[in-house]
Design a protein that fits this description.
Elements (H helix, E strand, L loop, with lengths): L5 H4 L14 H17 L10 H12 L4 E2 L1 H16 L12 H17 L4 E2 L1 H15 L7 E2 L5 H16 L6 H5 L8 E2 L1 H20 L4 E2 H11 L7 H20 L4 E5 L11 E4 L17
Parallel strand pairs: 1-2
Antiparallel strand pairs: 3-4, 5-7, 6-7
Length: 293
Amino acid sequence: NCELTPPIMSRFDLMFVMQDVHDETNDNRVARHILDLHRHGDSESQASLTGLELQRYIRLARNFKPKVSTDAKERLIKCYKKLREDRTYVRGACGVTVRQLESLIRLSEAIARVHLADTITVEYVNMAFDLQMSTLKRAEKENIDLEDPDGGAEAAAAAEPDDAAAEGGVPDAGVSAAPARPKRMKITYADYQRIGHMLTKYLYEKEQANEEVKEEDLVAWYMEQVEEDIQTEAQMMEQQHLVQLIINRMIDKDRVIIVYRASDDPLRPEGRVLVKHPNYPVGELIAGSASRR
């Protein structure tokens, strides 16, 4: 525990909170790893790269001077605006300043160098943004935003017919019949872990039984588990949308679920086959597991 003033803290690009949290799954894996090292030495943990090869790779990566592409520039602006808008992501009393934007640019350049790329793409900016967000979150685990940062514009566009109706216009019949969805959907960290563990455990059990699980089947199974808590059609639509967003996040960001095979029908993407990531132990914390590939 070090006492740093907010101006000093704002000069760090990344700041990780080290916590000794009791986790039975993680403790068991660490204990087995240490015991294996004592039993077998370093013979089973040889690195795929030698020290000399790693040094050459680092020297080569440093020679790259990546430039920000036009699309990446727009993405950087959106990421910075998201940090400024969401006041839950703060650093002490200093909040989010232009320093965080400069930090995001440096991280994007570093990721591009790691990939030996001359251009900073949107993908590299997204990776840097996820890394930065993970360090800006408070240690007590804030609510998880399940919506894509770019989804705000789509939600605003979808809300335009309602605004027109409020001003005296006549809304389209198809639009009025559709159930309204919230512009932003968030879930508590504890609920995200609970639902994520349910989904990964079900995928693991089906994998052990040599049964394939399609995304639509996984959603249907979850809806069966919570049907007793659903009283109205609106609640059913909300729960279905929620679990769909959680599955997408577990695939795209946390990477604890893998798309084993794409859907045979392009018009039905929910027909894709999903499996649990082989390196993810069932029951382990999900958020922050994006490094497993």
